[in-house]
Amino acid sequence: MDLNFTQEEQAFRTEVRDWLAANLPKDLATITRNDAPLSKKDMLRWQLILHDKGWLTYDWPTEFGGTGWDVVKQFIFEDEMARACAPRLLPFGLKMLAPVLMKFGSKAQQDHYLPRMCDGTDWWCQGYSEPGAGSDLASLKTAAVRDGDHYIVNGQKTWTTLGQHADWIFCLVRTSTEGKRQEGISFLLIDMKTPGIDVRPIRTIDGGHEVNEVFFSDVKVPAENLVGEENKGWTYAKYLLTHERTNIAGVGKSNQELNRLKSLARNQKRGGKPLAEDPLFAARMARVEIALMNMEVTNMRVLADVAGGGAPGSESSMLKILGTEIEQELTDLTRRALGRSAQALTPEVDEPGYNGPHVTPDGFQHAAEVYFNHRKTTIYGGSNEIQKNIITKMITGL
Q1: Tens digit of pLDDT for each residue in 305-331?
Q2: Active site residue 8
Q3: Active-site residue, selected from the candidate residues 210, 244, 296, 369
Q4: Long-range contacts of 386-389 (CB under 8 A, 24+ apart)
Q5: Which of 7, 43, 350, 360 could pair with 364 in a Cys bridge, judged by C-beta atoms 3.0 to 4.6 Å apart?
Q6: What is the spatial distance between Cα 126 and Cα 268, in angstroms, rounded to a whole number?
Q7: Residues 378-387: what's their mean pLDDT?
Q8: Which DSSP string corresponds to 32-73?
């Protein structure tokens, strides 16, 4: 693969960079650069700006309203978004459910749901994990029993990211207990306003409210909300997870964080010298940079396969492992570079008009929260231990 960009691709990069400079709201860029929490309103504002430009669905096929960009242009676009500190697009609807609907959904489902996830009408969350069925997803017990034109759903989901804002949830449900566990699972779309759904917050170690428990008690779901065939949900779930794991890699974001870390290390002092000159710290920064460069190449290979009509294979598991380990290393190095000041929690510095003291260098006031929040990344989306099993099985055929 030739990793040198052509003149056309360089011109495209310039076009994207110029547009972002003119259209990305400065307040959103500041929030993103400082790793401060984005509100639902913030995320939807940026989504609609991209939608108006026609770039929101940059990686969708043209027949579904995509841009028609090849994988290289998609990569450049994501890289420039991260470089400009644009808010990262939520993946649940646009990057996870959408590919499933395009491949396995009915025409009516495609026509109804795809436009609504683009214009912000529907905010989606994911209903996969359950107590006792996280990495071992086939153990899920949330049941959907067919009753005429409806399914009656009972059970519990957990770790539902941003479910407190969601209008809809796509769920894996058990529709049969016969045969292999994977053969009795179906894929349902459920309106979160349906009576019988209870969303309860889970407070995380960084003090935030990002994830939830979702309880279903005799929730009545129209049978037309079934995606594909009954008891074939495991196939659709695996297809979705490969897209989720590819998206988890976050190459552009990690590149941006690495550049911030390098700048921080040049300005922080240890023993009168810049931290960047400390041999042990410099060696860790070099290792993570090399790992990131390797991941970029793997990411391009996966995108090239997808562009050729294929689906991500074991490479998506590799990206999930590499991407999350790199993120954790970057947050750990940032915390170490800040030293004791990383312990300070000073959310007041984000308030408009704040003119008090800054305990940490500007832009790093959330470093401790980010460090603690990222301890989860090697667990969610299928733990890294599970990903290693997947890679082994796919490569060795065991």
Answers
A1: 766 666 667 777 888 899 999 999 999
A2: no
A3: 244
A4: 386/135, 387/245, 387/317, 387/318, 387/320, 387/321, 388/317, 388/321
A5: 360
A6: 41
A7: 84
A8: HHTTPPPPHHHHHHHHHHHHHHT-TTTTS-GGGT-----HHH
